[in-house]
Amino acid sequence: MGIVGRARLLPRLGLTGVVLVAGCARTGPQTSLVPVSDFARDILHVYGIITWAAVVIAAVVVSALCWVLLRYRDRPDAPLPPQTRGHALLEISWTIAPALVLLVIAIPTIQVVFRTQAATPPDALEVIVRGRQWWWEFSYPAYELVTANELHLPLGRPAVLRLEGPDVIHSFWVPQIGGKRDVVPGRRNELGFTPDTPGTFLGQCAEFCGTSHANMLLRMVVEPADAFERWVVSERAPALQPQAGPAADGAAVFASSACVGCHTVRGVSTGVVGPDLTHFGRRATLGAGLLPNSVDNVTAWILDPPRIKPGVKMPALGLTEAQARAIAVYLLSLK
Length: 335
Ligand code: CUA
Description:
- By secondary structure, this protein is α+β, with helices and mostly antiparallel strands.
- It has nine helices and 14 strands.
- Strands 3-2-1-5-8 form a five-stranded mixed β-sheet. A five-stranded mixed β-sheet has the order 4-10-9-6-7, covered by helices on one side. The protein has a two-stranded antiparallel ribbon with strand order 11-12.
- Helix 2 (about 40-70) runs antiparallel to helix 3.
- The radius of gyration is 28 Å and the shape is elongated.
- It starts with a helix and ends with a helix.
- The relative contact order is 0.10.
- The model has no long low-confidence stretch (mean pLDDT about 90).
- Bound molecules: dinuclear copper ion.
- Dinuclear copper ion (CUA) binds near residues 131 and 134.
């Protein structure tokens, strides 16, 4: 390689290194290194054992390699060392050593596998999670409530998610809660854990499921029991319908357009193709985590959903900008 090539190579290597290291933030939004449930702590524990075992083995192997390279390097005056072909003790030991390493890793791994597949505790909160192209539906049978893309859970109470895939295979993944679990049509997988830290934790679909796979995000809100109970009460209540003003105009447009065929607003419509919008105004985001929930963004979404979310099943309905904005104001009033 010439001088010029080398001069270009160094900045490129440097830039690549910076980009790689930038992905290493321990507290990034979807970190798996800051666990917030028993499930995630168990996995991180095994991960720690494997990482430290790998560090020790790498140190031993690299040190031995360096020593051999230095000790037996080619020297003009040194005689050839004795040549060895076959060494029973060495071969037995480097067969047994990796087997021992695997055994050390296998014991805690198998313990965690069984612990995370254990039967659901009787006081667990059951949530049916349906992965759909490309959003998440959460229904709570005990409370007869359905919501989308924002999963609320009470702090410190075991939760069991029963995962259903009505269309294709998805994978439910909130890294701080624990590992991925596939959402498979015709099968009901379960994911049980107890959230132990309050906060909002981000997740996403982790199995390629079509055009907008990357746009299938979710948020998990873990809150103290009393806040969760308040959330349940307000989610179960019908949304207050606006009586006058721009929101009421929007309600009229909503009720007379194709929206009602696909979306439920309890007391107004019963569509089940798209997300339940009864309390849409309380959600933080739009389009399964794509955009902040604001009048401008919802208007742009209604005017042309596929422009914002490629492949989305909701078509542009041919509404005017004024009609779309009126519906946006209405939907955001649904608290
Ligand atoms: Cu759903 Cu990827």
